[in-house]
Amino acid sequence: MQDLKRVDEIVVSYAKMQTPLIYILKDIQKEFGYLSDPVLTHVAKATQIPLSEIYGVATFYSLFTTTPKGKHVVRCCNNAPCFVNGSKEVLDKIKEYLGLEMNETTPCGTFTLEFTSCLGLCAVAPVMMVDDEVFGNLTPEKAVAILKDYKMKGKSNA
């Protein structure tokens, strides 16, 4: 069960903002890894924002998730500029390295692999994100090296 006291601390930290919901949800997801139903219900009560509005925001933005994911979420852009610059080959190599298909999580819970829509970095396509870090000008080898670096630097327990 998630610590609702910590959720309250996050909500209070944004109390003076006019439209804090996205920031609150972002911090809660960073703390717990995802936005669970009990947490969203608690946020609605704590902020006096209708639960329907909170669910709307939590499910509209692709970087929010209402289901548990791996410790690190690898998001590969699947828009046309990335595709024509080799994103399929990059993705194939990532899938091979992690042993995953799209929207799967490694058995140890370290990595989840997803698509993302355009990140607005077409000039450095193909692009991927690992958590909040963006990487461009990818090759299949460079993408795998980035994931290996997460392991070597202790960013992962895999």
Structure characterization notes:
It is a single chain. By secondary structure, the chain is α+β, with helices and mostly antiparallel strands. The protein folds into two domains: 4-60, no CATH class; 72-152, Glutaredoxin. The chain contains seven helices and five strands, in the order ααααβααββββα. It has helices at residues 4-13, 21-32, 37-47, 51-60, 80-84, 87-98, 140-152; strands at 72-77, 104-105, 111-116, 128-130, 133-135. The protein has a five-stranded mixed sheet with strand order 2-3-1-4-5, with helices on one face. Helix 1 (4-13) crosses helix 3 (37-47) and helix 6 packs parallel to helix 7. The protein is elongated. The protein starts with a helix and ends in a 6-residue tail after the last helix. The relative contact order is 0.12. The mean pLDDT is 91.
Give keywords.
five-stranded mixed beta sheet; 46% helix; 2 domains; 158 residues; Glutaredoxin; alpha+beta; 7 helices; single chain
